[in-house]
Every structure is written in C-alpha cells, then in structure tokens.
Amino acid sequence: MTVAVVGAGLTGCLLACYLARRGLDVTVYERRPDPRAGTPERGRSINLAISERGRDALRRIGLEDQVMADALPMRGRMIHPVSGPLDFQPYSHDGEMAINSISRGALNNTLLDAAEAAPGVKVFFGHRLTGLDPATGAMTFQTPDGPVETVADVVLGADGAGSAVRGQLLAHRDIEESLDFLDYGYKELTIPAVDGEFALDPGALHIWPRGTSMMIALPNPDRSFTCTMFWPTGGTASFASLSSPAAIERHFRDHYPDVVPLAPTLVDDYLHNPVGLLGTVRCAPWQSDGRVGLIGDAAHAIVPFYGQGANCGFEDVVVLDQCLDETGGSWSSALSLYERRRKENADAIAEMALENFTEMRDKVASPVFRLVKGIEHR
Ligand code: FAD
Q1: Using alpha carbons only, how large is the chain's radius of gyration in Å?
Q2: Tell me: the pLDDT tens digits for 15-41?
Q3: Is the CB of 32 under 6 A from ligand 1?
Q4: Any ligand 1 atom below 6 A from CB of 209
Q5: 283, 297 Cβ separation under 8 angstroms
Q6: CB of 155 shorter than 6 A to ligand 1
C-alpha cells in the first residue's frame, strides 16, 4: 500500500509519522526547498500557541517532550491599554492552565526530522503538485528538473489553505468549496531581548486591544517577542495608510506607546515585512473516490484568533489514525468516518475563531468581559 502526502507542513509531517507506524510506504511531496537548509522568510516567523489538543497528538507519538523543551508556557493574557496599568487575566483560577508559545519553523523542522527518520517514509522537496486524477491516484509534480509523474494508492492533501489537491478535486467536480477572506491582514514586528532578558513578561500572551484593530505578542526562546498586528486591509486604518517613518512612529506613540521604546526596528519591520492574508476555507466532502483525502488547513483553514489551526490539524491526524484502526485499515471507510467525525468540529471552531477576533480586539479591554474571559486556550 503506497500513500502520498502532499505538503510537508505541520500536518503533513505529523501525518507521515503516524502512517509510518502502520507500516505503510509513505512519500511526502513538498513544493518548497528543505526549510532546514535555508533562512526563514522575513516577517513570517509566526510563533504558535499549542494547546492540549496539539500536545495530545505529539504525546501519542513520543514527540511531546522534545517539542515542549523549546516551548514557553503562557498562563494568561496581559492586556496593554493605551494608558494605565497592565491587566493580567489568568486562563484558569489556579493559574496552572497554559497555552504554549512555539516557533512554527522549529516545530516544522522537528516534525520533518521525525518523519524522515520514520521507517518507510521518503520526503521530496521542490515537488509542487500540479495534477491529480482522484480515480487512479496518478499525480504530476513540477520540479526544478521538469515534470514528474507518479501514482499512489492513497493521496492525502496536507497542502494548506490554498491546497492544490483540493483544487484538483474541484476541477474534477468532486467537491464544493467556499473561501471567505477577512478584511484584515497581519504583519509582524519584533521586540528584542534587553540585556539578554525578556522585555515583557514571558508567561503571558500580550494583547493590545484597540477596538477596530489589535496587536498580540508571544515570547520566543531567544528572549525576543514576535508581535503580530491585525489591522484592516483597506480604509484609513489600514497598513497602507501609514507609509512614512514619521507617520508610523507617530501612530505607535499615540496608540501603542509602551511598544515604541521596546521595538528599535519598528519602522523597518513595518515598512518591509509583508502583510499576510487571513481567511476561512470550508469545503465538502473532504474525500473522494475512496483514495483521496484532505487534512489540516487544506480541509478547513480558519482565522488564527482562537489559536487552534495547527492544533486542529494535529487532531485530524489522531482521528484519521483512529478511523483506520476502527475500519481495519480500509481507506475508503476510514476517510468517510474521519470526515463525519471532524467536519462538524472544524465548522464549529471556524465560527468560534471569527467570534474571538471581536473579543480579543475589543471586549478583553472591558471590565464586564473580565467576568467571562479566558477562551483562546482549550
Ligand atoms: P501549512 O502549514 O500551510 O502547510 C502546507 C504545506 O504544503 C506547506 O509546506 C506548503 O509549502 C506545501 N504545499 C502547498 N501547496 C503545495 C503543492 N501544490 N505541492 C506540494 N506542496 C505544497 N495555529 C495554532 O494552532 N495556534 C496558533 O497560535 C496559530 N497562530 C497563527 C497565527 C497566524 C498569523 C497564522 C496565519 C496562523 C496561525 N495558526 C495557528 C494556524 C497554523 O499556522 C495553521 O493552521 C497550520 O500551519 C496549518 O498547517 P498545515 O500543515 O495544515 O498547512
């Protein structure tokens, strides 16, 4: 039995590790070069909050301790008003519950190492899927050496929000999809360590709620913070509305005054880091012809405000593995069962993530909200 996993992101690598345990012959195809060999893309570092759902998936395969060694637990939110004192809102009454700040790149590299080390797994970089016949499992990849044709018994699309596997299922009229882009984008800024120490409390997820927009910051093991601004993509409050260094500095002094002395590269980061898009992908069905399936963001990309996209992709892997157990390894039955179990949950978290945006950018700053707070962590 040969299985092709398209995409060596977080979901695809973890999936390859799980499938290897079943003794399957797994080939992972990734369009990009090996990320372990290059430097990360500017402004796309993204540290993720990994919660219990993600940890559970890592624990089951013996990777939790390795991943958590570089994680920084965040036990609550630290709200930064424009003026006045900071407000720490713990995630649990006993202060013990935490979400964990982890570098997406480092996590991906750990999972890649684990997948490559697993028996029966091969990983090909520089392979972009451009064609798929769902009925036969025949695939075409563009590579630096030209097109490559191959075939697998099972093809799993773990190729992210813009999934080419999903695109091929659409082209064969096997599924329907909807893509809803948010009219907000994101841009990263850096708060470096000061004299080798964290410039802010590393035990919290920092939030600057500003009504129509917000910024968050998560700690990194090198004692810096990665800040992510979520601002409108159009209108007078958009990223493009601030184009000169003076305007950027003025805006931050007025709206994020405590950040200015901590972010020496603020203007450079703002002018040169890219603006990322945010959106929700919904599609159905998630499988076709008893041999092709979608998993992770390829099946259900969501906006990041609940911090659950990667956690959900990891949970998909666990559930698909359980479905294979329960169906005696019948891919056709397992893929249908997996979709029945996961689709409803994916739809629910997609809605909750959209709702949490309003809460994070606005309601966390309100005294009333303090009574019902604390939700981006389960
Ligand atoms: P991806 O990470 O998109 O990986 C897909 C892979 O497929 C990539 O390597 C890509 O190069 C490859 N690929 C694409 N097309 C092809 C092709 N044609 N052929 C071959 N390979 C292909 N999640 C959390 O759980 N917690 C958080 O705190 C969190 N914060 C976030 C903050 C931001 C700003 C954003 C944008 C996202 C955040 N997420 C968070 C979501 C998380 O990053 C994603 O859910 C997760 O990365 C999805 O993993 P994936 O492997 O399914 O897809």
Answers
A1: 21
A2: 999 999 999 999 999 999 999 998 766
A3: yes
A4: no
A5: no
A6: no
Per domain, the residue ranges of the chain are 2-72+104-179+280-357
State which amino acid sits at residue 368: V
Count of residues making up the chain:
378
Quick: pLDDT tens for 63-74.
999 999 999 999
| Residue 368: pLDDT over 70 | no
Query: 58: exposed, middle or buried (C-beta count within 10 Å: 0-12, 13-18, 19+)?
Result: buried
Please, what is the end-to-end C-alpha distance for the chain in angstroms? 36
pLDDT tens track for 208-265: 999 889 999 999 999 999 999 999 988 888 898 998 999 999 999 999 999 999 999 9
Atom of ligand 1 nearest to the CA of 159: 7
Question: Residue 39 class from Cβ within 10 Å (0-12 exposed, 13-18 middle, 19+ buried)?
Answer: exposed
Distance between CA atoms of 373 and 364, rounded to whole angstroms?
A: 7
Determine whether domain 2-72+104-179+280-357 maps to CATH 3.50.50.60: yes
> In the numeric block, which tokens belong to residue 374?
């604390």
